[in-house]
Amino acid sequence: MRGVVFHGDRELEIMSFPDPTPGFGEVVLEMKASGMCGSDLKQYRRPKGVRQGMGLAAADGPVIVGHEPCGVVAAVGPGVDPRQAKVGQRVMVHHYQGCTTCGHCRTGWQQLCQRVPVKVYGNNSHGGHAPYLCVPANTLVPLHEGLSFQAGAAIACGTGTAWGALRRLDVSGNDTIAIFGQGPVGLSATQLAVAMGARVIALDISPQRLERAKEFGAAEVINPSNMDPVQAIRDLTHGLGAEKTLDTSSSPQARIQAVRALKVWGTCCFVGEGGDVTIDVSPDMLRRQASIVASWTFSAVGQEECAQFILDRGIKVDALFTETWSLDQAEEAYRLFDTQTSGKGVFLF
Asked: Which residue windows are coiled coil (predicted)?
């Protein structure tokens, strides 16, 4: 089979690999959709010879990228409980593998495993930008017939990440939430927060992304390149600030603005990867009783809950996708995605 490999410095190659065979406890998926996530760009842009950090297991040779895999079980290895997987089953992948036995792993948070270097499918172990993917059966999350494979790919990371952050913030209809960044994760957060009953203020420097945020239900939109976003948020909240803020951009400037746009007793969540922020503790946090939390993706349980919420509320997750691609178009697809002016892309098989 052929799969997409990043070489660094915005170079990629479609390389040949052996078709995978499931080992003990593993399954092989026939891919149907593999989403493109903003965090892919960090690997795509990284200098040649440099790999992602964060204590991950070292990769053995070229790695097929793509960590939003969704497909159908094509083969089941020995030792797999039929309640976990059977041929023909529609599934998403929770794209992490830890030791599987510690408390974090057993509660669905394998990415937080402290016992072994974590495998991340699409990062240091083969991912979904290929016709087939071999993963442990314990990473599978069922995909309801009422959701498309494209929706499953979105939920497998970008939309699931937005869900995890909003749950961490405990967003409800009592809240005004300002969401900084309206890329795929930010737009997903806008969709989900609106469905949770919150009033959403969407922020981005792209007029096209702000227009999409309106289409997804944002009550107000702000372009920080045209105005002071903190003051604009206060003007929209009777001078008080927002109960909740969420930064998906990883921009240092946006992060501190997200903190300063909070209401007294408000909570800010950082979800964008990388970057720094400098906080003046007394005026920015202490004297406003502000809380700052972080949210790294979601649990396997949360992924399934997110899918059920989307199904029950009829949320049009497929509308996130502005481009669909074939594997042969990978170079063109990532060139466009790298501009960060378009929406979300997905490879279909």
From this structure: none
| Strand segments (E) across the chain | 2-8, 11-16, 26-35, 69-76, 90-93, 96-97, 119-120, 132-136, 140-142, 176-180, 199-203, 220-222, 242-247, 262-270, 291-294, 321-325, 344-348
Going by C-beta distance under 8 Å and a sequence separation of 6 or more, which residues neighbour residue 66? 4, 34, 35, 36, 40, 122, 127, 128, 129, 130, 347
Which residues in 114-198 belong to E strands, given as ranges? 119-120, 132-136, 140-142, 176-180
C-alpha to C-alpha distance for 325 and 316, rounded to whole angstroms: 20
Decide: helix, strand or coil at residue 95.
coil
Residue with tokens 């209809």: 173
Give residue 164's pLDDT.
Answer: 98
**Could you tell me the sign of the dihedral formed by the alpha carbons of 240, 255, 220, 222, in that order?**
positive
Q: How far is CA 95 from CA 110, 162, 268, 341, in A?
A: 9, 16, 26, 26
Domain segments of the chain as ranges: 2-157+298-348, 168-294
Identify the residue whose tokens are 């600030």. Answer: 241
At 171, which amino acid appears? V
Query: Are 94 and 306 within 8 A, CB to CB?
Result: no
Confidence at residue 273, expressed as pLDDT on a 0 to 100 scale: 87
User: CATH for 168-294, among 3.40.50.10990, 3.30.870.10, 3.60.10.10, 3.40.50.720?
Assistant: 3.40.50.720
Give 10-residue mean pLDDT values along the chain (349 residues).
97 98 98 95 89 59 96 98 96 97 97 97 97 98 98 98 98 98 96 98 96 97 97 98 97 97 98 91 97 97 98 97 97 94 91
